[in-house]
C-alpha cells in the first residue's frame, strides 16, 4: 500500500473529469451529417416563413422526400433555410428544383446538416468538419493581378494630386501617369517656383510618394512622383487581405460548410469549397467584381401588389420601358421599388476610404458613416451644395460571368446587375465624410457598411487552376483513412498487450482514451479533418505508446535491481518522466514549426500532431498511472505482470 500514496486523490478526479469531457466532445463525430440544401437571401433580400413555405411546396411538387427543414439564424451568416436529404441524388435534384422556384433573389447551395443532438450542441459539442479531400468539392487557385494594384493606385494618386494642386491654387500644365507602369505620376508646371511649391505640397500631403525633379525643357518643368517600395508592398499585402475578406463574404452566400480561403505565396489565393459539386456556380460568385456608385435620385415608385404607385415618371418607365435619356431605371434587391437615377456618377466605390456602421446622434436610428478620398470628396461637396433636400441613391454594381457548355465548349458570358441598396434625402452639405440614415435595422446598417467597405475586390483576380473532387473519392479516402487508424491502433494494442502483459493492457486503455481526447480537442476547436490530419492521428497513436514503453522498461529495470513491485512502479514513472518530456518537447518543436510555418496539408498535419503529442503526454503518463494505482492499491504484490 505504501507505494501508491504518491498518486493523490485530486489526480483521480482530474483524470475522471478529462475522460468524461473527452467522451462528450468526441461523441458528436458518431452522428453522420445529412446531405442538405441551403437557401440564403441575396443582398438586400430577407427570409421569412412565406419563403420557407415556397421551399416546402417546391419539394412536394417535385416529389422529393426530405428529412427535415428549418429556418435558422446564425449571427455570422444571418438567416438561412436548410433542408436535409438522405442521399446526394435527392440533394442535387432538390437544388435544381429550388433554383427554379425561388429565382435569382435567393442563393441555393449544397451543404451538410448536422444531426448532433441538441443537448450536445448546447454545451458546444460539434463534429469535426471534413476537408476537401474527404468530403469532395472544388478547389480554385486564384492569382491576384499585381499590375492592377499598381494601375489603381497610380490612377488614384493622379486624381489626388490634381485635386491637391487645385486646392492649393498652384498652376500646372498637366498631371498624368507615366507611360511606363510603376514609374508613378508626372506633373508638368510652367515655372521653377511652381514646381518647388508643388513638390513641397505633394511631399507633405502624400508621404508615401517619392518626389523628384524630372527632365525640364523650356517652360515645362517636370516633377516625378513615384510610389515608395515599402508602400507598394503594403498595398500588395492589403490587396490580398481585402480580397480574402471579400471572397469570404461572397462564399457565405454559397452556403458552404467550413470553406478554406487562404493566401498562398505572395500573390495567390487558394479557395477550397468542401461539399460544392458545381464549379460553374462557385466561379460565378467567386469571380464576381463589385463596386458602388453614388448618383442623384430622380424619383421612385413602389409596387402595391397590383400596380406601381409613386412618381408618375418612374411608374410609366416601369410599365412602358420608356426611360428618359439622362436616366437609368434600377430596382431594389427584392424588386418591389423602382428608381430613376441620373447617369452622371457623383462618386464610386474606388473613391471610398472607409465605412462603419453606428447610430445617428440625433435620432438614434441605425446609420453608416462613409469616408471618401479627396477626389470623391470634392465631387460630393459640389453636388450636395446644390442639392440639399433632394434624394441620392447608392447603387450596388456587380459583374459576374455566366458559364455554359455549348457544343461541348465552355462559353463565358459577362453579366452586370445594378441594385439600389439605399435611397435617402440629402440633409446637408458634406464632402469626404457623411452619414447615411433611414436604414431599417442595425443589421441593415452593418450589411451596408460591409458592402461599402469590402464589396469590391482590391485587385483583379484570375482563376489559374481549378479542380473537382467527387464525393465518391472523398468517401473512399474516409474509408481508407478510418481503416488506417483502426489497423494502426489494433496492431499497437496487440503488440503492447503481448509484450508488456497487464501493463500493456493498461497502455492500450490509455491509447484508446488518447484517441478519444484527441478527437474531442480537434472537434472543440474546429480543426478541419483532412487526409494529412488522419496521417497525423496514425502517427500520434504510434508515438503515444513510446512513453509507455519507456515506463515499462524502467519498471522492469527496477525489478531486476531488486526493488519491490510498488517501489518499481513509483520509480518507473518518476525516472521515465524526464526522458518522456525530452522526447516529446523535440516532437512539439517540430509540430509547432509545421503548424506556424506550413500551410494547407502541411499545417493540417502539424496541428493534428501538435494536439496529439499533448494528449498522449497526459494519457501515457497520468491516465496509465491512475489505472495502475487503482489496480495495485491495497494489494501485497510479489511480482508484476510487465
UniProtKB/TrEMBL annotation:
<feature type="transmembrane region" description="Helical">
    <location>
        <begin position="576"/>
        <end position="597"/>
    </location>
</feature>
<feature type="transmembrane region" description="Helical">
    <location>
        <begin position="12"/>
        <end position="31"/>
    </location>
</feature>
<keyword id="KW-1133">Transmembrane helix</keyword>
<dbReference type="InterPro" id="IPR027398">
    <property type="entry name" value="SecD-TM"/>
</dbReference>
<feature type="transmembrane region" description="Helical">
    <location>
        <begin position="609"/>
        <end position="631"/>
    </location>
</feature>
<comment type="function">
    <text>Part of the Sec protein translocase complex. Interacts with the SecYEG preprotein conducting channel. SecDF uses the proton motive force (PMF) to complete protein translocation after the ATP-dependent function of SecA.</text>
</comment>
<keyword id="KW-0811">Translocation</keyword>
<dbReference type="InterPro" id="IPR005791">
    <property type="entry name" value="SecD"/>
</dbReference>
<comment type="similarity">
    <text>Belongs to the SecD/SecF family. SecD subfamily.</text>
</comment>
<keyword id="KW-1003">Cell membrane</keyword>
<keyword id="KW-0813">Transport</keyword>
<dbReference type="InterPro" id="IPR055344">
    <property type="entry name" value="SecD_SecF_C_bact"/>
</dbReference>
<keyword id="KW-0472">Membrane</keyword>
<dbReference type="InterPro" id="IPR022813">
    <property type="entry name" value="SecD/SecF_arch_bac"/>
</dbReference>
<dbReference type="InterPro" id="IPR048634">
    <property type="entry name" value="SecD_SecF_C"/>
</dbReference>
<protein>
    <recommendedName>
        <fullName>Protein translocase subunit SecD</fullName>
    </recommendedName>
</protein>
<dbReference type="Pfam" id="PF21760">
    <property type="entry name" value="SecD_1st"/>
</dbReference>
<dbReference type="Pfam" id="PF13721">
    <property type="entry name" value="SecD-TM1"/>
</dbReference>
<dbReference type="InterPro" id="IPR054384">
    <property type="entry name" value="SecDF_P1_head"/>
</dbReference>
<feature type="domain" description="SecD export protein N-terminal TM">
    <location>
        <begin position="4"/>
        <end position="108"/>
    </location>
</feature>
<dbReference type="Pfam" id="PF02355">
    <property type="entry name" value="SecD_SecF_C"/>
</dbReference>
<feature type="domain" description="SecDF P1 head subdomain">
    <location>
        <begin position="329"/>
        <end position="459"/>
    </location>
</feature>
<dbReference type="InterPro" id="IPR048631">
    <property type="entry name" value="SecD_1st"/>
</dbReference>
<feature type="domain" description="Protein translocase subunit SecDF P1">
    <location>
        <begin position="240"/>
        <end position="294"/>
    </location>
</feature>
<keyword id="KW-0812">Transmembrane</keyword>
<dbReference type="Pfam" id="PF22599">
    <property type="entry name" value="SecDF_P1_head"/>
</dbReference>
<keyword id="KW-0653">Protein transport</keyword>
<feature type="domain" description="Protein export membrane protein SecD/SecF C-terminal">
    <location>
        <begin position="461"/>
        <end position="632"/>
    </location>
</feature>
<feature type="transmembrane region" description="Helical">
    <location>
        <begin position="534"/>
        <end position="555"/>
    </location>
</feature>
<feature type="transmembrane region" description="Helical">
    <location>
        <begin position="509"/>
        <end position="528"/>
    </location>
</feature>
<comment type="subunit">
    <text>Forms a complex with SecF. Part of the essential Sec protein translocation apparatus which comprises SecA, SecYEG and auxiliary proteins SecDF-YajC and YidC.</text>
</comment>
<feature type="transmembrane region" description="Helical">
    <location>
        <begin position="481"/>
        <end position="502"/>
    </location>
</feature>
